[in-house]
Design brief:
Strand content: 15-25%
Order of helices and strands: HHEEEHEHEEH
Oligomer: single chain
Number of helices: 5
CATH class: Alpha Beta
Largest sheet: 6 strands, antiparallel
Strand order of the largest sheet: 3-2-1-6-5-4
Structural class: alpha+beta
Radius of gyration: 15 Å
Shape: globular
CATH topology: Beta-Lactamase
Helix content: 40-55%
């Protein structure tokens, strides 16, 4: 089965998910499976505080960073996906997160998640492709996947906001 068919099959499971934590977990598991990666973090944007934060981050507790910090912040600021195959040589990489967690980042791929108004609501970041470096084909799959899951994520965020009122 090709990757795009796998995404379509995954969509059926995702549609039945209503709580944001469950949706994020399913999205992260599927993203890692599709791109054959070690870790996935899904950052959500808080425009009011200008922060990016995770409700889902493999192997480390919640991460909260400024919208202009790190490779994820650079992705947000430039509105452009990133492939970084030598993170320790990248000016935007934040090695202190690796140091804190004991994890070694070998490569990174990020892409934006947009809502129905084309506002950025999240960023998917995958770390450490299991075989080789990230390539443009990986980015095509990740962009397609981000577009595919965006509606479900937007609805889950709206539902979460409404339950807090």
């Amino acid at each position: 089965m090709n990757k795009f068919a796998e995404i379509a099959k995954f969509g059926k499971e995702l549609v039945e998910t209503q709580e944001i934590e469950n949706a994020l977990d399913l999205i992260a598991i599927e993203a890692k499976k599709l791109l054959k990666c070690e870790r996935c973090s899904i950052f959500l944007i808080d425009y009011e505080s200008q922060m990016l934060w995770t409700k889902h981050s493999d192997g480390i507790g919640r991460i909260a960073i400024s919208t202009d910090a790190g490779i994820v912040g650079h992705t947000f600021k430039t509105r452009a996906p990133q492939i970084v195959n030598n993170p320790y040589d990248n000016q935007f990489f934040m090695p202190n997160i690796d140091k804190k967690s004991g994890f070694t980042t070998k490569n990174i791929i990020t892409t934006l998640i947009f809502d129905s108004n084309r506002e950025v609501i999240g960023i998917i970041q995958l770390l450490n492709k299991l075989e080789g470096d990230f390539e443009e084909d990986d980015l095509k799959v990740l962009n397609f996947f981000a577009n595919y899951v965006s509606g479900t994520l937007e609805l889950a965020l709206i539902q979460e906001k409404n339950t807090q009122l």
